[in-house]
Design brief:
Blueprint: H1 2-17, E1 21-29, E2 33-40, E3 45-52, E4 67-72, E5 78-85, E6 87-93, E7 98-106, E8 114-123, H2 130-133, H3 138-209
Helix pairs in contact: 1-3
Protein name: Transmembrane emp24 domain-containing protein p24delta7
Main location: membrane
Membrane topology: Single-pass type I membrane protein
């Protein structure tokens, strides 16, 4: 049991320390929409930056290269919305656990154009720009590392409580399911006995009418 708990905690620490960032570059056709989801836990901070890649660096971005961006919570609350932009950023603190969705819609244009979008989405301790926090002096560098470790420990603590809550929910669900299955079994048994009784009564009545018994 102790070995299993230690293994679980170790895996949890590794998952927290691993890069919790979503960085990508993808193409979006004009008049189309593409959505990206990220699971964020309650009270976790999340930041995102997006921009349209200029196909010709020596020239201004074409007027057709505009997008509409919307960030929503699992319940549909809008955290960020920008219309007709080429670059932008957002930040939020999750008030509920679930999949948060960022949708990019390219402005309709004829003839059709293809936009290349850079998108960087960071969650938790990775949403903080530690390069701006760290200072040049050795003491301030150590203080910055301590703050970073403290945030990591806090994230691990929150993650463990989240997993414990999920475990309790699954336990209650199992108990509820087992109880329902037990009642269903008794109900099925009652139905079977009732059908058997009706068949016996029907056969007995039939044989009595035929004077076979």
């Amino acid at each position: 049991m102790d070995l299993h708990r230690s293994t679980t905690i170790t895996l949890l620490i590794l998952s927290i320390l691993s890069p919790a960032t979503l960085s990508m570059r993808y193409e979006l056709h004009s008049g189309h929409t593409k959505c990206i989801s990220e699971e964020i836990h309650v009270n976790a901070m999340s930041v995102g930056k997006y921009s349209i890649v200029n196909p010709h660096e020596d020239h201004p971005l074409p007027a057709s290269h505009k997008i509409t961006v919307k960030v929503t919570s699992p319940q549909g609350t809008v955290y960020h919305e920008a219309d007709g932009v080429s670059t932008g950023h957002f930040s939020l603190t999750a008030v509920e656990t679930g999949d948060y969705i960022t949708c990019f819609s390219a402005v309709d244009h004829k003839p059709e154009t293809v936009l290349t979008i850079d998108f960087d989405w960071r969650t938790g301790i990775h949403s903080k720009d530690w390069s701006n926090v760290a200072k040049l002096s050795q003491v301030e560098n150590i203080e910055s590392e301590v703050k970073k470790l403290l945030d990591t420990v806090t994230s691990i603590h929150d993650e463990m409580f989240y997993l414990r809550d999920r475990e309790e929910e699954m336990h209650e669900l199992n108990i509820s399911t087992n109880s329902k299955m037990a009642w269903l079994s008794f109900l099925s048994l009652g139905v079977c006995l009732s059908v058997a009784g009706l068949q016996f009564w029907h056969l007995k009545t039939f044989f009595q009418k035929k004077k076979l018994i």
